[in-house]
Design a protein that fits this description.
The protein is α/β, with parallel strands linked by helices and 788 residues long. It has 26 helices and 15 strands. It is globular, with a radius of gyration of 27 Å. It comes from Cochliobolus sativus.
Length: 788
């Protein structure tokens, strides 16, 4: 259904004959149960108060505040019981001030499993309470009696509580096998030919943007400076909304983008292959100077215990050096050299050992012993050279999450980067479109397990294994910003990122971002912003948000008065009716993800050769609409009560029809309703996003802003050609690596080798090192141009 006063367009959706009987039965049951209560949010007044916490003026938030002084605030709980308090804001971009009762508190005791305050236990699907709700809009902590219940009827396969929700991390090696090519000679010849083509077309390096200079006379910040940073972080809000007009200032259109986005048609010039930076995080934990540098920070860490158990155990596998970086860089030069812009290696600084007490203290930065110096294309950057001016006040950091949250600050002449750990190597020739293309954006890969945190994370969540505490915490932040839904975790391989999007995504959460910056060791505060998870989902949510912003705030509001009058609401109803009258989107709409190769070749770009199992593109619509059943969509429940009735505002304007209110309703309060609105309206056209865009002539400037946003936040979801191995011992490594890859010529696009060795026996470790060296030299025997 689409509205109470409109005819249905698919007979199988008609339930009108039963509606009154259902209503009578429902009211009778409620009357007998005596459970009907009306609750008003205790914080409704506070939610409408202006924010008193201002982000640092050195961040993008201060710029936004100065440039968007009229941005209004919208009640988080969206109560319809007090209509006069709903503001008719001109822009939907809002600041949500933190509330004291919704924050996970800092863990203060000295145990790894230290306590966290705030909130009942409601996190992920392996808890047995009520976190996995089929109707994710029914979150009492986030809404009042005026909230939207109808979205529970809009079903999606993810609603199945057993459909891989928090069901595990990475598929086992046996369950994630990559097809093995039996014809070894032919395969080797193909690889050789492709790698020769790659090496013959190495991209030149352009002039680099200014980087913070390194000096051996640098001094680590004092403890007092770090304490000041911690105090500053606590004064910042959790969330900040960046207006699209500000977000797209860095986007320059070339002329082909409008037709591409609106009609899914490319008629522009041949495009240049994009150039991409490869950025590594690397540490040599066995270097004695680093061990000595790290020691006082370990002793003062909140994780330290009286018995010294944490200090004795936390770093052995995290900082062990297997020489993986050497071979990873060999693989990049061999398989991706033709589109590599720069290689940046992010390292720690350390105090040099003094020869005598009178000599001055000097500092060095870690450097791979095999890496040649003076290579223009390769940079070794200490944290002091790329951390932000505020964030560097708590250096040095030995927490990879802290470092990864600052990757966007690395300087380069290109925006795109591929973030790698040193234990990740490429196993096949790549094209740039395996990572990013101008037509389809970055490639994103996801696991099957999903997270939907509806209340502040708890102590139990902080004690979970591996990355789960950070996924749970970041899910909670994303739910508050974009609305509650299950969001899958990212695969544990290289990550395709935009520096500008990463900056916006991280700084949109000012307090969590700055709290992350002062963590020197993982787990010190229990929770931390998880960069990959938040950047991936921020990208997808902002693309979806841009479509709804375009349709509600611009296309539907034809007179730009911030209100949908009856004529404008009728146009929305007609759009929905046309979309419903066509065949289901799954058969009516052209599936762009089947034609990625054709379009890239048409634009003169090489198609993907590794990540060619493409599951979705943003040109098909938001990924959230995939497999979504919108048969029960109703404008009265999803857009506004009385939306389809002319008498609703015949005598006076109703605040519930303000574009800001409807926008907030479909973007954040009831995400499933917004997903269905997009899916049904797009079904008016077989390809492209035109049905959601502003008029090309009457609203040309607004349309340009929308096109820029959709280009910036476009993406492609893939099933990556990759293998992940938890290496435990020499025998296991020989079984999963040497036999398949060296004897049977197995191939994988990417290989990640995670150190999960627990033994400290020197003989066992030497055996394992021998196996690893045999494997690395077997698949990548050619010395790279970067090595001594």
């Amino acid at each position: 259904m689409i509205g109470r006063s409109n005819a249905l367009y698919r007979s199988r959706r008609s339930f009108r004959r039963y509606i009154w009987a259902l209503i009578i039965v429902f009211v009778f049951c409620l009357w007998n149960s005596s459970t009907v209560t009306w609750r008003k949010s205790a914080n409704s007044e506070a939610d409408l108060e202006p924010s008193t916490s201002n982000p640092s003026p050195e961040t993008v938030e201060a710029i936004i505040e100065a440039e968007s002084p009229r941005a209004g605030r919208i009640n988080v709980r969206h109560s319809h019981s007090n209509l006069e308090r709903i503001w008719n804001a001109e822009a939907p971009h809002i600041v949500l001030s933190p509330h004291s009762d919704t924050q996970p508190r800092t863990i203060h005791n000295h145990n790894v499993g230290s306590s966290v305050g705030g909130g009942s236990m409601l996190t992920t699907d392996d808890d047995t309470e009520n976190h996995d709700l089929d109707g994710i809009e029914k979150i009492e902590e986030h809404r009042n009696e005026g909230g939207i219940e109808h979205a529970t009827k809009l079903s999606h396969p993810d609603d199945d509580g057993n459909a891989g929700f928090e069901s595990g991390d990475i598929a086992s090696n046996e369950n994630a096998q990559i097809p093995i090519i039996d014809a070894k000679a032919k395969d080797d010849a193909d690889d050789l030919a492709q790698s020769q083509d790659i090496n013959e077309s190495q991209a030149p390096v352009e002039k680099l943007e200014t980087q913070t200079p390194w000096s051996e006379h640098y001094e680590f910040p004092s403890w007092d400076q770090c304490e000041e940073l911690k105090e500053k972080a606590e004064g910042l809000p959790d969330l900040y909304h960046v207006p699209f007009e500000v977000s797209v200032k860095d986007v320059v259109l070339e002329g082909w983008e409008d037709e591409w986005i609106s009609k899914a048609r490319y008629s522009g010039p041949k495009l240049d292959e994009p150039r991409i930076d490869f950025v590594y995080t690397w540490v040599n934990g066995s270097q004695q100077e680093l061990v000595e540098t790290m020691k006082p920070y370990e002793l003062n860490s909140s994780l330290n215990d009286a018995d010294g158990v944490w200090i004795g155990s936390h770093g052995s596998n995290r900082y062990r050096e297997w020489d993986e970086l050497r071979y990873s860089m060999r693989s990049v030069e061999k398989y991706a050299g033709h589109f590599t812009n720069r290689i940046q290696i992010l390292v720690n600084a350390f105090k040099n050992a003094k020869t005598d007490d009178s000599s001055p203290t000097t500092y060095g930065k870690q450097w791979p012993h095999w890496l040649r110096s003076g290579i223009e294309k390769v940079q070794v950057l200490s944290q002091e050279e790329f951390f932000g001016s505020e964030e560097r006040k708590c250096l040095p950091s030995f927490d990879s999450l802290t470092i990864e949250n600052q990757l966007y600050n690395t300087k380069s002449e290109v925006d795109r980067l591929f973030a790698l750990s040193d234990d990740m190597i490429l196993g096949k020739p790549h094209s740039a479109s395996d990572i990013y293309s101008p037509l389809f954006g970055p490639t994103l890969g996801f696991k099957t397990n999903a997270y939907n945190t509806l209340q502040p994370p708890t102590e139990k969540d902080a004690e979970r294994f591996g990355e789960k505490p950070f996924l749970i915490y970041t899910s909670w932040l994303l739910n508050r910003r974009f609305g509650a839904r299950k969001r899958k975790g990212q695969v544990h391989f290289g990550h395709s990122l935009s520096r500008s999007i990463a900056r916006e995504a991280i700084t949109s959460f000012p307090r969590p971002a700055l709290r992350s910056a002062y963590q020197r060791f993982r787990g010190e505060t229990g929770f931390q912003l998880y960069s990959w998870y938040i950047i991936f989902h921020y990208t997808m949510e902002r693309h979806r948000e841009a479509l709804l912003w375009s349709y509600i705030m611009m296309r539907s509001d034809s007179n730009n008065d911030g209100y949908l009058d009856w004529n404008e609401r009728q146009n929305v109803m007609n759009d929905l009716a046309e979309g419903l009258s066509n065949e289901p989107p799954e058969t009516f709409r052209r599936r762009m993800y089947y034609h990625v190769q054709d379009y890239l070749e048409q634009a003169g770009l090489k198609p993907p050769v590794v990540n060619n199992d493409i599951l979705w593109t943003s040109l098909d619509g938001p990924i959230m609409t995939k497999d979504l059943d919108c048969d029960a969509f109703d404008t009265e429940d999803c857009l506004a009560p009385g939306f389809s009735i002319s008498s609703s505002d015949a005598e006076a304007r109703s605040p519930i029809f303000s574009t800001a209110t409807i926008f907030d309703r479909v973007t954040r309060e009831s995400p499933r309703c917004g997903d269905c609105l997009i899916k049904l309206v797009l079904n008016r056209q077989r390809a492209g996003l035109e049905p959601l865009l502003p008029h090309p002539v009457q609203k040309a400037k607004q349309r340009e802003t929308v096109i820029k946003a959709l280009i910036k936040f476009q993406y492609t979801v893939v099933n990556p050609d990759a293998m992940f191995y938890m290496i435990t011992d020499a025998e296991q490594a020989e079984h999963v690596l040497l036999r398949p890859y060296l004897k049977q010529n197995k191939k994988a696009g990417q290989i990640c080798l995670n150190d999960d060795v627990v033994t400290s026996n020197k003989h066992d470790l030497e055996q394992l090192k021998t196996v690893m060296n045999t494997f690395f030299n077997g698949i990548l025997p050619e010395v790279s141009s970067y090595e001594v």
